[in-house]
Specification:
Immunoglobulin-like; 2 domains
């Protein structure tokens, strides 16, 4: 087993919740467990007819999709936090153009769409448990269709210029009759609103309809930018993880694991944004690559055909991309005139090319340079303002609003590590990826200590679909080394956040905790930890904890002790614990050391809460009950003890550095 060990911002930071409440003074009785509604006590509701009127699914039921279910135009489906949709084989959900879906999950109560076979592995019906299985195709997927512009040349009547009349039938759906409008997507409204998705976990899906016609984990066709997608996970799918056909939809906080084809696939002129992503390439089934074994991590097709408009022109910030080191395909694959910018990303463990120039998609498109479009090298040297000179339509500038600086195709301010193929960087070098102006970092060698991620643990190699796979079975995706700080940040534009690190995770927030299958299966669980920090200038052996700081541990306490009675500290002295959520410190402070000399403050005193107790001469507890809110998972804090002597002197003691985990 290979082991790699090295030592996001939100609109309202969840970490501030704990800090504010500690300053107010949390008591054990004020801590409310925020677990999911147990699926075991919920009644099963079969869903066998299309949803024609606005409907709400509640977390007091589980819902079993019977065949392909549509949310029909004019209807809205609202799904409450904590709702489980667990379907039989063949069950699937599609939101037609003109309908809306609102998935209202939270980090503590996600919405889960999965199979009944997955639910059978949950302990006591608790969706925060479960066992990973080599499986997929156990139900269908979630498909959403909208009214934004697409470029698709196989539908009779579609034209090469941007047109509101261009449309296409969604892959993987079966029309009830020829021309069935419920399976169609595309139109002329880039501001179209198909609803919102928050904290949704999609597991074990991907129904195979026919050869090369399979359902992805999440299929998005022609969605407009008014559709909100924030925190979505795909675990084990027979085909792609997320596939986007055209439109302008934006995505934030996406996690894609062990899918059977491409992880993040783009077609037909997507002009959107994405930030804070995780891709872990692997396999879902022992089947051929593309139907069970992962293919490319990012695969971006421009347009169909490649001289049609709109053409894919996108910006992706802060993605962590983990490939398959032996038999993986490209970390980024480029086809059919696609123009994509990758910024502030981490690319590790690829088995093939970091930049893979595929040119053609294999579906009849003509690739880069067709009919006077820019050739492949030129997209890397052309400013973002030169959107397209072929088939532009009436208002090309309004079509392309995503990229705001740089070149049409680029990779900047990113880290590359341990990509093992002999040709891993051949194309990247040819495209100038490692030119100094791009601020990319290529970490030489394979020393685990230099990894841009805190840790990766893989299984032993297994043969799947004729490929040698080494699955990621444990991951701490938080940044380390070169990923801790980026040179630039995303523009603050109402969607992007100015995250000053590389990869999908800030140094303090594992946003997978509490709602994902990867967390429930133990792949990304954040371990609680405590490390004692001492200093010879301070009172020795004076602070520990009674247990690990785990979510919901209402009995957690600091334990103060001074068995040597050194530095004038005796039983009955006041003991103060200073807890800081702004990191450790190392500050000399006159008068606070042993005998009144120099001491050291080991926590940041500018944001410290004081907890008061008495040193009894035996180990004495000062309680700090911990909340169960999963959004606090991974919170790092430091604490230090100070004793007040009988004469009024203050003597600093040892410190603990802790991580709030599971």
């Amino acid at each position: 087993m290979e082991s790699v060990s090295t030592q996001v911002p939100r609109k309202t930071s969840p970490k501030n919740f704990l800090v504010k409440n500690l300053i107010k003074g949390i008591t054990a009785t004020s801590l409310v467990s925020m677990g999911l509604v147990g699926a075991a006590s919920a009644g099963e509701v079969p869903v066998s007819i299309n949803i024609a009127t606005s409907t709400t699914w509640t977390n007091t039921n589980t819902y079993n999709l019977q065949g392909q279910i549509f949310v029909l135009p004019g209807a809205t489906l609202t799904i409450e936090p904590g709702t489980v949709i667990a379907s039989d084989v063949g069950g699937s959900l599609a939101v037609s153009k003109g309908a809306q879906i609102f998935v209202n999950g939270t980090q503590n109560q996600p919405v889960i769409m999965t199979s009944k076979a997955d639910v059978a592995t949950w302990i006591g019906g608790d969706p925060k448990t479960g066992t990973w299985r080599e499986s997929a195709n156990e139900w269908g997927n979630l498909t959403i269709m909208g009214d934004a512009f697409i470029s698709e040349d196989s539908t009779p009547g579609n034209v090469a210029t941007p047109s509101a009349s261009n449309f296409a039938a969604m892959e993987g759906l079966t029309e009830a009759f020829p021309g069935d409008p419920n399976v169609l997507y595309g139109g002329g409204n880039d501001d179209d609103d198909s609803g919102s998705i928050n904290y949704l976990s999609l597991r074990y899906g991907g129904k195979v309809v026919s050869l090369a016609n399979e359902l992805n984990g999440l299929s998005l066709g022609g969605l407009g930018r008014a559709t909100d997608i924030d925190h979505v996970e795909i675990m084990n799918n027979v085909d792609d993880g997320i596939e986007i056909w055209g439109g302008t939809v934006n995505l934030k906080h996406f996690s894609i694991w062990n899918v059977g084809d491409d992880s993040f696939d783009v077609d037909q002129g997507w002009r959107g944004k994405a930030q804070f992503g995780l891709i872990v390439q692997g396999y879902s089934l022992n089947a051929s690559q593309g139907s069970g074994v992962g293919d490319n991590c990012f695969e971006t097709d421009g347009a169909e055909d490649s001289d049609w408009q709109p053409v894919t022109t996108a910006a992706i910030y802060n993605a962590t991309v983990i490939g398959q080191p032996i038999d993986g395909d490209g970390l980024t694959a480029w086809r059919d005139n696609a123009r994509v910018q990758y910024h502030n990303c981490v690319f590790v463990d690829g088995g093939e090319k970091a930049v893979r120039f595929d040119d053609l998609d294999g579906d009849g498109a003509q690739g880069y340079g067709h009919n006077g479009t820019l050739d492949w090298p030129t997209t890397w040297t052309t400013d973002y303002t030169v959107t397209s000179l072929v088939n532009p339509g009436a208002s090309p500038a309004s079509m392309y609003q995503t990229q705001t600086s740089g070149k049409l195709s680029s990779i900047t301010d990113s880290v590359f590590f341990r990509n093992l193929s002999s040709s891993a960087y051949t194309e990247a070098n040819a495209r100038g990826v490692f030119d100094a102006a791009n601020n990319n970092v290529l970490i030489p060698g394979f020393d685990d200590a230099n990894s841009p991620l805190r840790s990766i643990v893989r299984s032993a190699p297994v043969s799947k679909g004729g490929k040698s796979m080494v699955q990621v079975i444990s991951l701490d995706p938080l940044p380390a080394n070169e990923a801790l700080v980026s040179v630039g940040t995303a523009p603050v534009d109402g969607f992007f956040e100015a995250a000053s690190y590389r990869g999908g995770f800030s140094p303090t927030n594992n946003w997978l905790c509490g709602w994902t299958a990867s967390d429930a299966f133990g792949f990304t669980s954040v371990p609680a930890s405590v490390a004692i920090r001492t200093d010879a200038l301070n009172v020795p052996s004076s602070l520990t904890t009674n247990s690990n700081p785990t979510l919901g541990n209402a009995s957690f306490a600091f334990v103060v002790d001074n068995p040597t009675a050194s530095c004038g500290v005796v039983p009955g002295n006041l003991a103060l614990v200073l807890a800081s959520f702004n990191g450790p410190a190392d500050l000399l402070f006159p008068g606070f050391g042993c005998g009144g000399g120099l001491g050291k403050i080991l926590v940041d005193p500018t944001i410290a809460k004081t907890f008061v107790g008495v040193y009894t001469g035996a180990p004495s507890s000062i309680p700090l009950p911990l909340p169960s809110d999963a959004s606090l998972c991974g919170l790092q804090f430091s604490a230090q003890v100070a004793f007040v002597t009988a004469t009024g002197g203050i003597r600093l003691g040892d410190a603990v550095d802790a991580v709030l985990g599971k």
